Structures are given as C-alpha cells and as structure tokens.
Amino acid sequence: MATLVLTAVGTVLGGPIGGAIGALAGRQIDKAIFAGGARSGPRLQDLKIQTSSYGDALPLHFGTIRTAGSVIWSTELVEHEETGSSGKGQPKVKTYEYTASFAVAVSSRPIKGIGRIWADGNLLRGAAGDLKAGGTVRVHTGHGDQAPDPLMAQAEAAGRCPAHRGIAFVVFEDLQLSSFGNRIPSLTFEVIADDHCDLATILAEIAPEARCAVTGDSFDGFTIDQGSAADTISAISAAIPLATWVSDEVLSVVRADRATATIPLLAEPAANEDDRGRSRSSGWAKRREPMPAIANCAVRYYDTTRDYQPGFQRGKGRSEQGEMRTIDLPAALPAERARAIADAATLRLSHAVERISYRTTEIDPALLAAPIVRVPVAKGLWRVEDWEWQKDGVSLNLASIAPGAITDVPAAGGTDPGRYNAPADLSATATVLAAFELPWDGTGAEGEAPLQVAASSAGAGWKGAALFAGPDDAATGLAAIGAVPARRATLGETLSGPGAGSPLIVDLRNTLDVALASPDFSLRDADMAQLAAGANLALVGDELLQFGKAVPLGGARWRLSTLLRGRGGTEWAVGSHNAAGEPFVLVDSRVVRIAEGSATDAGEVVAIGIGDPVPVRAPVRGRGSALRPLSPVHGRAAMLPDGSLAVSWVRRARGAWRWSDEVEVPLNEESEAWEVTLGDPAALAARFVTATSSLTIAAARLAPFGTAPYRIAVRQVGKNSMSKPLIIVAG
Fold first, then answer.
1. Reduced to 3 states, what is the DSSP secondary structure of residue 524?
2. Is 53 in a helix, a strand, or coil?
3. How many Cβ atoms are within 10 Å of 719's Cβ, its own excluded?
C-alpha cells in the first residue's frame, strides 16, 4: 500500500525520477510492516546481566559453560547494625550491613553441578568450592527427584513451594552484600552440565527421534537460549556444515564436509534417452559459479582460556576486497579450535565453487551417510548437496570442496586468544591473631586504653574477621567489638630470642630470627633517621623494639639486626624473652585500635572469619600497659656522712617521648607520688611514700637491713596503677 501511495505522490511532485524514489521508500515501509517474523536460533552473546523477568525462557546447557541465570525467588534485604567508637569521648558511630537470600535458575536441563561463581566480574566462589563472602550456597541440579529447598519451603506457605524439578538453580542464604554496595550483585555461573559435549549429544537432546551420524565433533560447552531444533541445527551448520534429509519420516543428520576413511567413487554417468531410445546428453554437466562476495569468515565464541569471555577469530581469506561473514557459535572453545573453524568456513564460503549435475542409474545407499564422493569425470572431492529419484535413474547435484576445507583440526603454531586478567582465585585461609595493649604513644585521648588487634593469615585470600572480646577463657558472654578488614597485619613468631641488651644504645651484637605467618610477607631496612621517626616498630613478646636490618633466610624466615631495645617504656622486658615461640607483630597501620568500652577490660579476643573452621582465640598481652605509669630512670644513691642514704631519680611521663623544649615534662597523672621500698620485695621491707623525685633514708631505718649494699625499688604511683620498679643498688 505504501509503495502505491508514495509512487503516485513522487510522480506528481518529481516526475519519473520522483516516482522511482517514492517506490523505493514505499517498499521499505511495506517490508517493515507486512514482512513475516524472522526466525533465529541460539546466538552468542556477551555475558549478560542476570534477569528476574517473569516468563523468561531458561537456556539449555551442554558440557561446561558460563551463564548469568535468572532470579526466581528472593527475600527482602536483612539489615545488621553495629555500633562503634573511635575513642574515649568520641561519638558512637552506627554502621549497617545487609544480607540477602535468593535463588537463581541457571538451566532448564539437569546438570552435574556448579563450578566457579562470579559476582560483578569478581570471583564469589572459587574452583575449590570456597565462598569468598559470608553466607551459604546450595546447588540444586534439576533432576526428577529434586526436593524443595528448605529455606524456600520455610519462607513460603505450606504446599506453595515447588521443587522446580527439571530446572537447575542455586540458592544463596544470607549472602553478605557489603562487598557489592549492599545490593544483590550480578552473578554468572560456571555450569557443569555434562562430562563431555559433542554434536551427537546436542542433537539427541533437541531432536531425540532423529538419526544423528555425527561423531568426533565436540565442544567444551554449548548453550541454546532460543529457537527451535531446526534453528539450532541451522546455527550450528554455519560453523560446522551439516547435511540433513528426511527418509521414512525420520530426520537424518550427518557432517556435510567430513570424508570417511574410504571415499566412494560414483558409477559412470548414464545418458538419458528420449522416447525413441536416442541419447540426449552425456549424463553430466559441469559449471563454475562466480567468485562469492564473501572474502573472509570469522567466528565469535566463548573462549575457555579467558573464563568464557566472548572471543573472536578470523580465518585466512582472499586478499582482495570483499565482505566478511561473522558466525555466532554459542560454544565454549579454545582459541585454536575457533581459528580452525574460521579457516574451514573461509575456504567453504570465499572461494569459487564448481558444480556438477550428475546422473547415474545406480547408487550406493552408503552415500547417505558419506556425502563426500569422487567422480570418474573430474578430479578432487565433491559434496552431494541433494539428489532426486527419477524414473530412469538418480540425479545428483555435486559441489566441489576446496582443499583443506574438510577439516577443522587446529593447525600447528597456536593462536593468540588475547590478553585477559583473570580474577585471582585465592582460597580463604584461617585467621592468625594477636591482641595486646601498648604504652600510650601520646596520640589520641590521654586516658584512652585502646585494645590493639593484629589479624592476619597465611594466604592472600583471607577476607578479614569479626572480633569479639570477653574475660579470660570465656565460653560465653563474648561481646562484639568490631571487625578487622582484609588487610593482613605482618605477624609471626620468634625462632630465637634476641638476647640481653641495653635500651640505652643501639644493639649491634644481638640478632632476632622470626618466622612470619605467610611467605609473601616482607620486611625492609630502615636507616637511623627512619628509626628515629618510628619506623620498623615491632612487639616481641612484651618488649617493643625497632630493627634497622632485615635479611630474608628463605621461605617466611627473616633475621633482624641493628636493634633498638625497650622502646616505649618496655625496657623492663628486655631480659624476659624465651628462646623461641614468642609472638612477633609489626606495629604499623594494619594493626587495628579498638577503643570500645566492651574491649577495655578484655582478657581474650576471639576472631571468626570465612576460612576459620573454629573461632580463633588470643589472650590480651600487656593488659594495663596504656594506663600504667612509666618507671623512673637515672637512679642514684649515695651514703651521707651521718650514715643516711640519699636516693634520687628522674621521672618520665606517658606519651612524652619528645623532649622538644629541654624541660621536664608533666606526669599526666593527678598528682606526683612515689613508692620506695628497701630490702627484698618478697619479704617484709621498709616502705616510703614521697611526692618528690628524691628521698633520704635515715641511718636508723637502714640498721635492720645490715650493711651495704642496699637494694632499693622505686615505683611511680598513678591514678590507675603503679609503674614497673626502678632498681637502685646502693653501697
């Protein structure tokens, strides 16, 4: 109708030329409106975003393939609230995390299982079946005896939860969404449908009553997401030529370009005769078709070496200009096989074809299963495209086969599939934990006593852990105190003690051997300027020290030297080390400070991560260190002429490590108070209390302790506890 109208209008306005233009435009409109619906078979697509549209068709999968799936059931997001604080006196901060439970259908055909799972392109489940985020995953393979999922059955009303038999689906229960912006991520699944995937299996599924003599043609995986059986066979034939015919109402399918071991030779051509018995032809005729417009063929496929990402391989075509035909093959293949298919398709479609019309009075029935033949009247191999039984013989139409086009076996030399940065498949490993308090470093609130937690693991797949705290060896009553992120702290244990040393000089004699928790951890050197700025601070047992040299010994073992001992007021612990087995923690930004009130008096910290089969427990070392006053230094004692003893010392203040103005620093305590004891602390000793950093002990008080030398212990009295003693030996 549009053709007639626009032709008439164009003729009136522009004459014959206008009429031609109007007719062309009208035909395009009529074609768009009245043309029949196009049919299409399975197509290769980019890895789609999963859908949840009601009524969407579920694909059929064969072999091993990657697919997006469709969400068929879900619950509302579940909100989890946590309250934390950055320190004493700071406002509390509430954080929210969400979990979700949902089911994703992946195949309308039973499968064997699910391999890897990707979420937003990153691995959510590894090849070993480990889940990289919190939650539980269950796979339903879709067989006839499949039972309803227990979570879905519990959430739905009784009798309203189907088992979805015949449909393979995956159920996620309480999947943590913090890594995905607190939303359900876009998931793709590695579906393992069969151990093997070949054309015979695919054709038997979509056309079970057909006779399929297709052997030796296999893929790693294949998917059918739309179209009928005829559409699927047609789509496969674009890459792998198939010959089909109907005999006795049964469909037969064979390879159209695959030669058998013995290629049959047709009988001599038979000339047909007219009614008087005179010959009218020789029985065969040969013609050559013009060069096709297609100069090259390419194949789009799912590349198995690139985690099933779409790949593209071109065949070797003609050098002159021409069209390129792209074949969408929804199969999982290595790049070499895809390139071989593209080369074979190029030979079939880009070269001129010779055809022979051949007539014979006899034919071998084996030709039906071997469509490649030889003929006595021409050289080369010929494909039987069709035949017709006639009253005086069999008429066949033959097409020439280009040399090399009867195989799609990869050629030697290999093919580049392209670069692909695959997400690392790192298994979640168990948590290694250390908890401790440190002397106050002068940062933050003065009265704050933060709990320090160093959490790590032997593998880079560790995803962090939730933290709980409670009394010593608490079986119950643990309180949540936060979580450590997936940033592994550098920790381990000592292989040898650092030996005795002085906190007043650089220790160049002793060394310390440590075994770190993971071989991929490393330590680095620091010069004196860096050490003065606080670099390479480590907690070894109860002593804080710094190291200037770190030498790898192989594996996770390191040797530390150029040591600064007794840092942060821990000089009392210099001689307290065991030979081996003490915790080693590099005190840096990866150590988590927890100032929440529930952690202040904790005697034990418990961590639970994805890779922890049981909770990991660690006692809190150095309890009270943050609020404990520092012991005094530079103790002196002198006997006076009257027999009395004069004792003096220099005070230190918590957190006051920089003597910037060269004057004595305030004590950071409510008042200055000192406890001085004389004699053996295990026995009843003389005790003195003073408010100044000096004391004179009268001769009468010294008399019960005999003659010199005298042992004197000086401790600072703080508002929370007393310092470690300074021991002064007089006389």
1. coil
2. coil
3. 12
Check residue 36 and give its pLDDT. Answer: 41
Q: pLDDT-based confidence at 330, cuts 50/70/90?
A: very high
Please state, in angstroms and rounded to a whole number, the distance separating the CA atoms of residues 369 and 392: 23
Domain 197-255 belongs to what topology?
Phage tail protein beta-alpha-beta fold (3.55.50)
From CA 216, how far away is CA 214, in angstroms rounded? Answer: 7
Helix (H, G, I), strand (E, B) or coil at 325: strand
Q: Residue 145: what pLDDT?
A: 93
Q: Would you list the domain boundaries of the chain?
A: 1-37, 60-192, 197-255, 258-290+352-414, 431-621, 633-730
> Alpha-carbon distance 76 to 455, whole Å?
33
Which one-letter amino acid corresponds to residue 170?
A: V
User: What are the tokens at 217?
Assistant: 């043609």
Maximum pairwise Cα distance, the chain: 161
Q: Which CATH architecture describes the domain 633-730?
A: Sandwich (2.60)
Q: What region does 569 belong to: left with phi over 0, alpha with psi -120 to 50, or beta?
A: left
Percentages helix, strand, coil for the chain (3-state, rounded to 5) are 15, 40, 45
Please report the sign of the dihedral spanned by the C-alpha atoms of residue 307, residue 312, residue 316, residue 319. negative
Neighbour tally for 406: CB within 10 Å: 20
* Integer Cα distance of 396 and 377 in angstroms: 14
What whole-number distance in Å separates Cα of residue 608 and Cα of residue 173? 18
pLDDT value of position 7? 46
Q: What pLDDT digit, counting tens, does each position of 83-101 carry?
A: 655 444 455 667 778 899 9
Round to whole Å and give the CA distance between 109 and 142.
7
Distance of CA 648 to the CA centre of its chain: 63
* Rounded distance between C-alpha atoms, residue 252 and residue 489, angstroms: 66
Identity at 471, one-letter amino acid code? P
E-only strand ranges, 32-152: 60-67, 70-74, 78-85, 92-107, 113-119, 122-125, 136-140
Angstrom distance (rounded) from CA 687 to CA 666: 25
Measured between alpha carbons, how far is residue 185 from residues 49, 71, 118, 122 in Å? 9, 11, 9, 10
pLDDT digits (tens, 9 = 90+) for 574-590: 988 888 899 999 999 99
Q: Are 573 and 566 in contact (CB under 8 A)?
A: yes
**Contacts with 596 (C-beta within 8 Å, 6 or more apart), sequence order:** 84, 85, 481, 482
